[in-house]
Amino acid sequence: MSYDVIVIGVGPAGASCAKKLAENGFSVKVFDRREELGVPVRCGEGLNERTQELIGKIPDRCIAQRIKGARIYVPNGKYLEAVLEYGGFILDRRFFDKWLAEQAEKAGAEIQKNTLITDFVKENEYFNGVKGEFQGKEFEEKAKIIVCATGAESALRRVLNIFSKLNLIDSCLQYKMSGIDVDSDFIHIYIGNEIAPRGYLWVFPKGKDRANVGAGVIPGKQNAKYYLDKFVNDHQELKKGKIDLVEGGCVPVGGLLKNMVTNGFLVCGEAAHHVNPIHGGGVKEAIISGRLAADVITDCLKKGDVSKKALSRFNEVWWEKRGNHLARVEKLREVVEKLSDDDLNDLVDALKPEDLIEFSRGSKLSVLAKALMRKPRLITLAKHLL
Amino acid sequence: MPWDINNKKCIRCGGCVSVCPFAALELKENVIFNEKLCTLCGICEKACPVSAIKVTK
C-alpha cells in the first residue's frame, strides 16, 4: 500500500507534523529507528510553559520539575535571575516523546518503531518512497511526500546536502545525576570562556537531589567531557552525587537553511537546524516547524502538486514565522561568544534579568548593544546587533 | 583502517554523523564508517564530546 506522507523520525517535529497531517485526513506512516521513543535523550529537557498553547496541556507524568525561570551565572559567580512570566518545566522526554507519538497515533498516523530508514526511492526526479530495514529484512514503502524529521544525527540529510558545520555546533555531554543538592525552582546556566568556551554548562533540576548536568562547547582543544568533569569536580554540591546516565550529541546552533525542500521531500525540526542558537533548545522549535510543515504539505496534497516549487512555501512560511527571528538570535550568539570573562562579569551589573529573556527571543537586542557600547573596544561588536 | 572508534567510550549520540560533510557516517548499533565516502577530514573526531574517534592519516 502507499501513503500520502511518510515521516521519518517521531521526535517533537515528526510527531507534531504527523499528528496534524492525520487530523487533516491524510494517510501517514511514521518510521523511527528507536525501540523506545524518548530514549536516549539528547537534550536538557527544558521547555517554556507557553509551548502548551501549541500542543495542549502536557500530562503531569511528562513533567519532571516545574521551574520559575533561569539563573545565569557569569565567571565571577554573580548571577542574573530571569523569572519566566508563565514559568517552565523540565520534561521527562521518556514520557513526553511517547505522549506526542500517542497524539499522532490517536489522530490516525501509523507509527512503526525499530525501523532504520537507509535510503530513498526516487522516480522522475521526485522522491516517492523510502528503503529501510525492519526485523532483519529490507523493505520499501511509497508515499507522495517524504518528511525527514530525524534530528541532526542522520545521514539521510544528504539528500539536501545538509550537515552541521563544526563551528556552528555545540558538542554536548550530559550526566543524569542523583544525590546532589540543587535549587529546583530554577534552571542554572553557567557561562564563561574558561569553563565552557562559546557554549555553557547547565544544571536542570529534577527534584532537589537530581538534575541533568551538562556541558555544550564549540569543538576545540578539549572535548565536552573535559569541561563537564571539571565543572562537576569544582562544585561540591554536584561532586558528592552519582552519575546515573551519560548522554550527548552535537546541537546545531546556527546554519539556518534557505532551502528545506525538493520534489516530494521536506526536512524539518533539528534535522533542518531549527534550534534556538543561543541556548540550543530545540523542542519548541521542532514542534512549530513540524506543524508549519504539515500546513504546507496539506495545501500541496490538496492541490496535487508536491514539486519543489509548491513545497518551497515551507521555506517562506518558516522564515517568516521563525527564521528571521532565529537569525537575530544567531547574531546574539556570535556577539556573546566574543565577549571576555570580564565583559560578561560587567554585563551582569548593566542588564536587567528580564532583558535576558527578551534577548533569547531575538528581541530588545538594542538594549544589549547599548550596554556593550559603554566599552569603546566593544562598539564594533555591538553594532553587529543593530 | 585509517580511523578507530573506541566503542567503550562512544555514547552513540550521533554527533559525528551530524557534522560529517560527506554523509560517510551512520549510527546503527555502533557508528559505521563508509570507506567509499570518508575523506579522512577528521571533523567527526573534533565534534565527538567524549573523544571516541581517532582519524589517523
Primary descriptors:
heterodimer; A: 386 residues; alpha/beta; FAD/NAD(P)-binding domain; D-Amino Acid Oxidase, Chain A, domain 2; 3 domains; 8-stranded mixed beta sheet; B: 57 residues; alpha+beta; Alpha-Beta Plaits; two-stranded antiparallel ribbon; 2 helices; globular
Task: Kindly summarize this structure in a few lines.
The complex is a heterodimer of chains A (386) and B (57). Chain A is α/β, with parallel strands linked by helices. Chain A has helices at 12-23, 52-55, 93-107, 224-234, 236-239, 283-303, 308-311, 313-336, 341-350, 353-360, 365-373, 379-383; strands spanning 2-8, 28-31, 46-48, 63-73, 79-91, 110-112, 115-123, 126-134, 137-148, 169-178, 186-190, 200-205, 210-217, 242-252, 261-262, 265-267.
Could you characterize what this model shows?
The complex is a heterodimer of chains A (386) and B (57). With 386 residues, chain A is of the alpha/beta class. Chain A has 3 domains: 2-43 and 94-162 and 256-311, FAD/NAD(P)-binding domain (3-Layer(bba) Sandwich); 64-86 and 165-252, 2-Layer Sandwich (D-Amino Acid Oxidase, Chain A, domain 2); 330-383, no CATH class. In chain A, 33% of the residues lie in helices and 30% in strands. Chain A has helices at 12-23, 52-55, 93-107, 224-234, 236-239, 283-303, 308-311, 313-336, 341-350, 353-360, 365-373, 379-383; strands spanning 2-8, 28-31, 46-48, 63-73, 79-91, 110-112, 115-123, 126-134, 137-148, 169-178, 186-190, 200-205, 210-217, 242-252, 261-262, 265-267. In chain A, strands 1, 2, 6, 7, 8, 9, 15 and 16 form an 8-stranded mixed beta sheet that branches. In chain A, strands 3-5-4-11-12-13-10-14 form an 8-stranded mixed beta sheet. Chain B has 57 residues and is of the alpha+beta class. Chain B has one domain (3-55): Alpha-Beta Plaits. Chain B is 18% helix and 21% strand. Chain B contains 2 helices and 4 strands; from the N terminus they run E-H-E-E-H-E. In chain B, the strands form 2 sheets. In chain B, strands 1-4 form a two-stranded antiparallel ribbon. A two-stranded antiparallel ribbon of chain B has the order 2-3. The model of chain B has no long low-confidence stretch (mean pLDDT 93).
